From TrEMBL:
Keywords: Membrane, Signal, Transmembrane, Transmembrane helix. PROSITE patterns: THIOREDOXIN_2. Residues 98-263 form the Thioredoxin domain. It is found in: Membrane. This is Thioredoxin domain-containing protein. Belongs to the protein disulfide isomerase family. It comes from the Eukaryota. The chain crosses the membrane at residues 20-44. GO terms for cellular component: COPII-coated ER to Golgi transport vesicle; endoplasmic reticulum; membrane.
Length: 379
């Protein structure tokens, strides 16, 4: 049997007795430094292990099917009017496409997402509008200031009521003001409201009459609306029916538009004008959306690079108050790529529990802004 002494004889790591060793100041310093270095390295490694990092990588699509990616969308905005709703796309390569209309359709809806009319066409709202007189010119007051207290009275009293819904801080409202007041004075001289009684030109300050502007679904400034006596009766969905003017805003154009409104009453009959059966209809007058909501549906073709899809209120001749805009929306459908066949959709549903749901994640999702006193919720 091997003894303990013989086993110790093969020890490669022999120890020197403590009594034969001597401590030195340099050795103590080196030991403290080594200990601090080890603690520092341990702390750094632990911090790096506990930290959460985000890494982003761009993978080039080398598929040979198509150069562009197709985006299908069906999104409802309960408080954004089709009059100003704009679909824009941009990408990192510098491509910017504003207010796409070729493959996008807009339908007016009510706050409950129910359709209230046929497809809305932007028409003249996207063209460049000419303004007339100097913005600093003092033309005096020619139009009547309307409030929530007298608006219904005037709209029922006069066969034609043309109203400028404006905001004092708005650049375009201030550009319109001189021409509007001049045109109102000319119309007042030609068709005295007291003697003639066929037309009245008014204005509404939306910063003071917020409720009145919301009731008429005014979202951009200035908005020129045409009210015909008797047509302000609420329909079955409980919304006002009105017309908007999208033409040039110089004095001559405004007077011509107002003359066209009065002429049918003078030449044919007041009833004819009220029913709007005259053939002399200006191409710059058209029905505005009767409700404040809009459903946007269609498709887009974008490049296969990082980019943005933006839906916002846009106009080349109107201003918007962001604090009053309510961009709540409900996503009915939003998908990227080719449309799947019914068989492929069925297969996807069967595989979803195993690979995770990755198709149509946003479908049916609602993104609602809470109501408060400052929101333009036109319900």
């Amino acid at each position: 049997m091997i003894s303990v002494g013989k086993l110790k004889s093969v020890d490669f790591y022999r120890k020197i007795p403590r009594d034969l060793t001597e401590a030195s100041l340099s050795g103590a310093g080196l030991s403290v430094l080594a200990t601090l270095c080890m603690l520092f390295l341990f702390g750094m490694e632990l911090s790096n292990y506990m930290a959460v990092n985000t890494s982003t990588s761009v993978i080039v699509d080398r598929s040979t099917d198509e150069e562009f990616l197709r985006i299908q969308l069906n999104i409802s905005f309960p408080a954004l009017s089709c009059e100003f709703a704009s679909v824009d796309v941009s990408d990192v390569l510098g491509t910017n496409r504003l207010n796409i209309t070729k493959t996008i359709r807009k339908f007016p809806i009510d706050p409950n997402l129910r359709s209230t009319g046929s497809e809305f066409f932007s028409g003249h709202s996207t063209r460049h509008i000419k303004h007339g007189d100097d913005i600093n010119e003092d033309t005096g007051e020619g139009s009547v200031s309307l409030t929530s207290n007298n608006f219904d009275q005037y709209s029922n009293e006069y066969p034609i009521l043309v109203v400028n819904f404006y905001a004092p801080w708005c650049f375009w409202s201030n550009k319109l003001r001189p021409s509007w007041e001049k045109a109102a004075k000319i119309i007042r001289e030609r068709y005295d409201p007291e003697m003639d009684g066929r037309i009245l030109i008014g204005k509404v300050d939306c910063t003071e009459q917020t409720g009145l502007c919301n009731r008429n679904h005014v979202q951009g400034y200035p908005s020129i609306r045409i009210f015909r006596k008797g047509s302000d009766i609420r329909d079955h969905l409980g919304h006002h029916d009105h017309e908007s003017y999208y033409g040039d805003r110089d004095t001559e154009s405004l007077v011509a538009m107002m003359e066209n409104l009065v002429t049918p009453i003078k030449l044919e009959s007041q009833t004819l004008a009220l029913e709007n059966k005259s053939g002399n209809v200006s191409d710059v007058k058209k029905p505005a959306p009767v409700t404040g909501g809009c459903r946007i549906e269609g498709f887009l073709r974008v490049k296969k690079v990082p980019g943005n899809l933006i839906i916002s209120a846009h106009s080349t001749s109107h201003s918007f108050d962001p604090s009053l805009m309510n961009m709540s929306h409900v996503v009915t459908h939003l998908s990227f790529g080719k449309l799947m066949s019914a068989r492929m959709l069925t297969d996807m549903k069967r595989l979803a529990p195993y690979i995770g749901a990755s198709h149509g994640r946003l479908d049916g999702k609602a993104f609602i802004t809470p109501r408060d006193a400052k929101e333009n919720v036109t319900s």
